[in-house]
Amino acid sequence: MTSVHHRTSSTAMPVPSPRGPASAALLSVLRGDAAPRIFVAAARMATAPGRGLGVLVDDDIQLCLTLLYELHLQGIDGVDDRWGWDAELLTARAALEAPFDSEIRALAAPVVDRVAGPDVVAALWDMTAPSTSPGLSGFMATEATVEQFRELLIHRSLNQLREGDVHTLGIPRLAGRPKAALVEVQADEYGGGRLERMHSQLFAITMRELGLSDAYAHYVDAVPAVTLASLNALSYFGSHRSMLGALAGHLCAVETTSALPSKKYAAGLRRLGFGDAAALFFDEHIEADSVHEQIVVRDLAGGLAAARPELVDDILLGAAACLAFDDLIGDHIAECWARGSSSLRS
Ligand SMILES: [Fe+2]
Ligand SMILES: [Fe+2]
To answer: Cα of 69 to ligand 1 centre, how many Å?
Structure first.
């Protein structure tokens, strides 16, 4: 596949460095230097039983998934978009998704088990109730350095610079009340159609104010496997109609855990001397997400569960996975900072 006019550029993900044999094989396929079967074989090897390393912390596998999903989102710089529907690459993606799915379920299970109960709305409020410990956002408010703020923004940048996009994939798969609810929330994420109010644009301003690049996926090589895994879990939910419940649940967890931490992040930026421009992304989310959380929990998740009761388990799975990944990334960052090192890849 080499036809120039199918290639993406400028707003696409820059081509990352490989992180092992599978991602090296995939990148050579996407460059046109190897046949897709080379990657199919490498993906099978990467997920062979008894490899020991968990998929969620496997840099090589997570980078492969990020690339395969990106073919369906903003694309990859210089890569033919038609690779997104190549049968062999989709076969290999499915081989990577099978163990990824199992590990997401195992990660989410303890969170789901805490809230056992048939009422999905009550369970979601229960699951996402603010914790009493100050956590990462508390640290950012009172102690973090500018350099630590930069790291945190870099971890979030791959998702935040396309904020809303993957959850929006739920819209054509929904009908009735949950569809209207998702459209209402997503309209806000896109600034009601005003470029300067789009949340991804507000995040770009924060990146620039802190001296970082706001180019899409600029920091793909810097983020560790666990950050890619969190991103990939959302893309996995958004790429499969069979995971619609999980996609809705994921958004519930995003919206219900945003307002309070956003207040702390904004306070931390102002403590460090940054002004309203840098804090605007977080200021916006204090107000917006205290409204969004009501809409997504009651109307999106509650409405979807009422229409399709068989999706309740998946809704809770998606919410729990989102929370569990936030904890994993938060723990990774805290452990790195506690020993005085960077939470990013060198
Ligand atoms: Fe937002
Ligand atoms: Fe929101």
So the answer is: 21
pLDDT above 60 for 85: yes
Domain hosting residue 205, numbered range: 114-338
Instruction: Please tell me whether residues 36 and 183 are part of one structural domain.
Output: no
* Residues 305 and 157 grouped into a single domain: yes
- DSSP β-bridge partners for residue 80: 7
Residue with the two structure tokens 């596998």: 61
Label residue 3 by pLDDT band (50, 70, 90): very low
Q: What is the pLDDT of residue 186?
A: 98
Ligand 2 centroid to residue 290 C-alpha, Å: 8
Residue that terminates a domain, selected from 73, 105, 137: 105
Radius of gyration of the chain (CA): 20
Domain end position, chosen among 105, 130, 154: 105
Tell me: do 119 and 58 sit in the same domain: no
Q: pTM of the predicted model, to two decimals?
A: 0.96
Tell me the C-alpha to C-alpha distance, in Å, between residue 251 and each of 23, 234, 256, 295: 29, 9, 8, 11
Tell me, what's the pLDDT at 133? 77
Nearest to 332 by CA among 225, 207, 234, 238: 225
Neighbours of ion ligand 2 (CB under 5 A): 289, 292
CA of 162 to the centre of ligand 2 (A): 13
Domain assignment of residue 86, yes or no: yes
Q: Distance between CA 278 and CA 170 in Å, rounded?
A: 30
Over residues 279-328, the pLDDT tens digits come to: 999 999 999 999 999 999 999 999 999 999 999 999 999 999 999 999 99
Task: Say yes or no: 155 and 301 in one domain.
Answer: yes
Residues 61 and 118 in one domain: no
